Amino acid sequence: MELHQVRYFLAVASTLNFTRAAEMCNVTQPSLTKGVQKLEQELGGELIYRERQLTHLTDLGKAVLPMLERALASTEAVRRRAREFRQKEVAPLTIGLAPSISASLIVEPIAEIRKFVPGLYVELREEPPSRLVELLLEGEVNVALVGDLDDTPERIDDWALFEERCVAVLAPSHELADLPEIGMDALREATILDRSYCDMAPKFHRLYFPDAPPHHNHRSCRDLHLQHLAAAGFGIVLAPEHMPLLPSLKALPIEGDPVWREVRLLAVQGRRYSPALDAFIKVVRLRDWSLHTEAPRQTEHHITATSKPPVCPHDPAYC
Amino acid sequence: MSDHLTKTLSQMRHELLAGLSGADREAYIQLVDWLRKIDVASRALQVGDTAPDFLLPDAHGRLHSSEQLRREAPLVVSFYRGGWCPFCNAELSALQAVKAEFDSLKTNIVVVSPETRDLPRQLKRQLNLDLTMLADVDHGAAISYGVLFRVPDETKAHYAGQGYDFGHRHGSTEWMLPIPATFVIDQDGVVRGAFVEPDFTIRQEPTDILNKVRQLAGSQAEDASASDE
């Protein structure tokens, strides 16, 4: 397929009008129509129902639209980057992070992008996952990293990046600190430092404390506050494995590793990617996340409402 | 001595073809016939075209700009299908075998595939490569080079039956692949060599790529001496 054909199709998809699409692409309508027809021949079916008053996308058109939008956004972002570079423009990138996602995860990707996008201006926002989805759709946040999410709207692209387990963080002087792992009974007896608004809390409660809530005596909405309390011997912090720790703390696995979660990348479909956003998405989807976890279980796949990747015993990627 | 120093890619191709099962052979013939029918190669960049620039991550998540790479030296861009394809793996190993010659010609070579996640990293380890392996995340480079196609349903069914899920491997809902192609690009971004072959079992011999690079170096030297006069 050719780039101009893709551009014509996307223009028709956004305007649902061949005349306006041709104007947008600065070509004659017959040229645009011919380009779309060639793309249809190659993709093996009609992309657009052409009806006088009711031009609309076919199922095939709807299926290929998000992927073609991303491909075009990617090629245009490279061109825009060159222009931004020449004009020394500021390149804003707003990244949303769920409360249980540490900014340490994205420091290296951002540093990589800054080499190529000199005007990079990063803003980090911490919000619950459902709020991040709203902010993405409102355009307030360009991209988000979240953990478990009940439901992603259709317009959100969603890639699973890696899986990680939950660990128990405690002071070396804690009575459980010398064990190779924390048993479930001991965990249920221990004082757990409570993080307000933690997006992993429901999962903790369901899997660690199904019969009775944990013993909470101390609380904060800041992970660092809780770590200082843990270092002072006030209790145990339950944290995702990638979370950076104060040097005065240690992390222990929990018996049977009952809590795992996927860290996922969210972006809005059909939006024009800025050069910074395009580069960020690309780098994050290739990063070696096993550096952040004990057990490398990198699992990037594009999640759709209906598909989960099948497990293929012959594919080393699944080992 | 490495197999790839004693055998040409063409010889390896014949060996690999001989090992295909009946179903694999049928799927291969069907796909190549279809690619020829839709004349997929005619959409690809040709000699004299300007190659669009790209910015892609490598197997370790480090970004590479084609603009920077071509400005410092001639650039070879080779599109391959993925680590699941034995013909691609033969080609990558053959390129690795002559990597030192590319280095001595001060040529940058990058191999590009649509595979994401840790797949390029795994392949690099598996084949012991030190080639720059770029991930064409979301297929932007393949589309702009005119080498991308949507996998037809029959082929999709065949690969899926073997356990390959390109949607999963590429991080995309749609199954797209590049036709293997090799481009030699000069410092101004002009395509000086283009090898585009719908039969994905046929790849450009590394010796031919090296010759193309030497020709390019020769013509640039002539241009430089002419401008000095």
UniProtKB/TrEMBL annotation, chain A:
GO terms for cellular component: protein-DNA complex. It comes from the Bacteria. GO terms for molecular function: DNA binding; DNA-binding transcription factor activity. Signal peptide: none annotated. Pfam families: HTH_1 (PF00126), LysR_substrate (PF03466). Keywords: DNA-binding, Plasmid, Transcription, Transcription regulation. Residues 1-58 form the HTH lysR-type domain. InterPro entries: LysR_HTH_N, LysR_subst-bd, WH-like_DNA-bd_sf, WH_DNA-bd_sf. Gene3D superfamilies: 3.40.190.290, Winged helix-like DNA-binding domain superfamily/Winged helix DNA-binding domain. Transmembrane segments: none annotated. Belongs to the LysR transcriptional regulatory family. This is LysR family transcriptional regulator.
